[in-house]
Fold each of these.
Amino acid sequence: MLTLFLRSFIVIGILLAAGPAFTQAYPTRPVTVIVPYAPGGSVDAVARIVAAKMSERLGQNVLIENVAGAGGVVGTQKASQAAPNGYTLLFSVESTMAIAKLVSPSIVQYDSQRDFQPVTLIGTSPLVLVGKKSLAAANTDELLKLMRANPGKLNYATSGVGTSLHVAGEMINLEGKVKMVHVPYRVGAQMVTDLMGDQIDLAMLPLVMALPNYRNGNIKAFGTTEPTRSPVAPDIPSLTEHPDLKGVNVTVWFGFFAPAKIDMAIVTRLHEAIAAAIQEPDVRSKLTETGLRVLGSNPTEFTAFLAREIEKFGTIVRAANIKAE
């Protein structure tokens, strides 16, 4: 009996001692990154840019698995149920991680703060309030005056109810004390087509989608939704530069998450690999081309950032009574 006890004690001691070694050896096989959106979109593009360099840093292939459905909810739910061993990660954005639960509480079963461990915030990008060329306003001040003179008569398009684009539009309504009418679209590219065809008045667009047609003179750009001008488009003012819109602050962001309860040593290993990857000149250049302000925030910073985003979006969602159910 004593011999059996001693043997058991020795085995447990060996396993405990070996724990850090197992962590240091991570990863010993390919890592899968779930992207909860279809291939070819902006989230997928950013994930693939970073994953290629992550593979080099980790010494293992980093594979992208697109699991689209329900505006990102299906893939995110799948990632939340993965084993917390560092071999399944999530690459996601604000709509899925900070807004979805607020606007669809009975549909969204995961909790981004409870079920995930933030790893690295890759970067942020503003949205842009754009308009058709024939709109009788040349700047934000003229646009607000036009809206106030015609309450409920100007519409704005977004990629759907409960998205960050929708929230940004409603924040402008609340802050500016105006009444734009929301027109949700299923296909983002169609918004630009309809703007150029005078089918809609305004739209909230990601910066990367707005820039080409703004530069070509096909649409007007009134302002971005971040507090400061984007280094990618410094000629477009921030909406906050207008005194009536100082509270407008909606940022599109991209980041890596791991399932909750993961060993923090693995989180540190992942963050170091990701942070180093996005500092590579070619990666940084590609990310900047997508309109991103590259950050690389660490797990602690990202966790605090996520909490602030959920609180901020919650205030807007409740005030505007946004529901996607």
Note: The radius of gyration is 22 Å.
Amino acid sequence: MADLWIEVDLDAVIHNYQQIKAKLAPPCRLMAVVKADAYGLGAVEVAKALAEEGCEFFAVTTIAEALILRQEGLEGRILVLGPTSQEDWAEAVTQGIELAVSQLSWIPHLEEIAAQTGCKALLHLKLETGMGRTGFTGEQLTDLAAALQQAPNLEVAGAFTHFARGAQRDRSYTRWQFAKYQDYVSRLEDMGLKIPLKHVCNSAAFLDYPEYHLDMVRVGTLLGGHFPAPAFAGTLDLRDPWTAKARIVHLQNVPKGTYVGYQSLYKSKRETTLAVIPVGYADGFGLEPKLVPQGLFDLAKIIVKNTAAFFGLHLGREKLLLKGQPVSTAGKIGMQLTVLDVGRIPCQLGEEVVIPLRRTLANPRIPRIYKKNGKFYRKRVVQEGFLSINEECI
């Protein structure tokens, strides 16, 4: 067994899915967002587990992500949310993958590809209401409707927008976006377009705006056991499915005053035990996203955290746990090895340490071990010209 691995509790994902479903009023449907490899949990495994629970709609960002789900046997509806390349459209259309459309110039090309393949291309119209990223503006709606009416091989499956400030307490901007969305949809329908699925809510909006649930909601963060912002904590009974672990591969008792690591930045304050675990920057350990301060208070928090780190205090960071007790790193985190000062905690080689490893920063090569129905199994990925996945029970 590996000395570094990640345990993913699919039972927790299913629990979260049921919690979310209970908040939906029929006929509103849940689209499970499994982009970025289901936020590091494993898109194939998460999607299959949810499909067994009755989930029929899934969303990713790229066609490549969607094709992996299809190749691994997922039969549900899959929407690609992001902009896509023309070279990938034919395969996507033949695989029944639904595409978000946000550029007028794409429509004649998609029509040609759909006609050539003999398959209807299912489209979701991305409407730009204030995110400032992708989508049709109000000035483009007349041309959009005209182009679609001249494309008999294209079928509009839905229309959506994305809220820029759904997790913020000031609701005025989100309400303004929703009003624009309603106006755009109404104008398109008045021009003869039928829009079966209207969807605007991400995880934050799902929680805060039940009146905006419409035909479908797109939820990803909540399925993974995280709230989109601290203000939402406790609104659902969520379970965290992610645990990263490493085994101790080296132990050494050292006297007071021992220097540890690069630049000798750490010096033991007492006689202690140092434990080495096989994880570092190459695995995503110790990395954090660069966040832009949201106001002066947020800037002050960042300054305080960085100042404390200079003196060896890491505020707000999740703890490494050995036998349920917090331990700290000794010195700088290395590329693939990290030293821990475990103090007087009795331990031995091979002992497990729980690591605070961010999901989307975790190296995808770290083995994942999945738990479902109380049993663990490992996914071993073998690359032989195509993706194949073998299950191994543990």
Note: The chain is about 25% helix and 25% strand.
Amino acid sequence: MSTLSYVLKKSQKIPFNKSSKIAIMSDCHRGIGNHNDNFLKNRHIFVAALTYYLQNSFTYIELGDGEELWENRSLDEIKDAHKDIYELMKQFEERESLYVLYGNHDINKCCPGLGLKNTECREGLILRGLGREIFLVHGHQGDLLNDYLWQLARFLTRYLWSPLETIGIRDPTSAAKNFKKKTRVEKRISAWCEKHEQITICGHTHRPVMPLPGEEIYFNCGSCIHPYAVTAIEIVNGSFFLVKWMVKTDSLNSLYVEKEGLGGPYDITLYL
């Protein structure tokens, strides 16, 4: 887990306070709009969530795997398929309220290629305020194959598991799709958090985690490709919230997107 310690040491520190409003999301896996684009099924939910955060003056932080660059080679094709998404992100950028991290599936992306000319793609970030430092990182750093051997993992995904996925065979090397692997990665990162007494928010495993104060200090904001839902961690009024955005039906059978609370609010100062 020395990789996490290295990323923590080199990460930029961003100040926040009790009046800050921050939305943290991860693992969109935006593709090129074809049948393998896992983002498509929740695309409208994501747009609704991001629009809400923009209209309500949130800072938006994307924790990695925003783009699916293992199954797809072209960043331009992804940009063309999801132009409205990047237009929304550009509005956050213009307000200086956008931060983008990379994960294992988009480790070699560049934000200017997405039209985000003033945004640096980072490996880690630290939110500093209220007497706490909150470490933000994708989380593949706790996963040997997807960290040190990411090029091999990309090769296997691109040429073996991606074609097999079309007939229903899941990738056993993926922490998001393999329960045992997911659990191992989470345990490694959680142990590192406890050892270093470091509050940490990750993505990567796609499983949302919101610990109670006094328990663990490992958090996970989940993903944007859950079946019929998008999850996020919000920091509002100095507290953590875990939320889920999903489509619902009203009494007139009209569809709408609504946010539900899954955990919190928990005061940040109660952790550690």
Note: DSSP finds seven helices and twelve strands in the chain.
Amino acid sequence: MPDRYPRGTVVAIAAFVFIAFGVELYAMSVLLTEDAAGGEFSISLLSLAFGGSVVIAGLVAPRVGRWADHHAVRGLMILGAVLAFLALSIVSLTNIGWIVVLSFWVLLGPAQAMTLYEPAFVAVGLWVGANKRNHAIALLVVIGGLAGPVFLPLTGYAVEHFGWRQTTFAYGVAILVAALIVSIGFLPRDKPSTDRPEPPRPVKWRRFVEDRRLGLQTLAVVLLFASVNSMLFHRVAVFEEQGFDVALVALLAGISGVLTFPGRYVAPRLAHHVAATTILTWTVVGVAGAMVFAIIGTPTAVMVAHFVIFGIFFGFTLPLRPVIMNDWFAGEDFGSVMGKQWSAAAVAGGVAPTLIGVGRDAFGSYLWPLVALTAAFVLAAIFNELSVSRFARRSEPAA
């Protein structure tokens, strides 16, 4: 039914994503500091552990997407939460570095692929009617976006008052309990494969070459995610290098996160009236403009302008990928297509911050790495536009 909209289901999934993102991403940025786990393990080791988990999540994503096509997301959510619980429990108990790395790579990485936005976007495609999917995506990314503003200060408070090990274990319990409550109490029991005579065929990587529209859009997604991930990881250090106080930069980064909310909410609704690809192009150009202010850096007004512009435009980009992909590829193999695409983006997003760090050390400053990131944003906008050009329309999707 095109107008089907199980709002309670969408809210429940969004609430779980909110907790999963808060625990598996935002809390990590506090738990890895010297006041927490970083005081017992080296920052390099913990960075290797977390960066590797992101890459592993990307490598696992295609199989997760295919599973969602066959069996929906109930089992994925529970399994991912169990893996996250085990990873965090082990980390909270061990004093051995290689066990921390192994726990992140073997347990937390797959958990990220099963519990963050990707399965949630597939669930929206399965359970929400075509006319209401953009509304559901908007609700999902707005609730999920609260994870940063809530979990960053919450984790800081918990670490200070209870210790990082107790906080880590408690977060593992929280994500497991949330998965059980949401999956048992709120998710539909029907499976997407119920009325299919046979499972859909696997999506091959060659489809991304043969279907130019899909391939070009994927290149745009990869460049966008890799660039955003790099900037989010390095931006405090970028402005610290330019002489600004870290506390001030961190405060502005938090405000920038809050400024993403209007775009998260408006972009999917605006896509009912303006092509989503057009919105994405202009918002990515806006993010590139914010990068120019990061390159200039000073005075303080320029830094503030960077965070304000980056936050506003970045918020619009967040929900547009699932909107575009649902419009173009919703169907029995949608999860597989999304999983393959996210696999490429996540691996790039795990590697790119390291390359930017290497570039910074090689050149002695962040200037040229920032120029490279700005160019990558511009290229993402170009590939996005090419995905709706005549060149892309001349190709036929693989059978």
Note: Residues 192-197 have pLDDT under 50 and may be disordered.
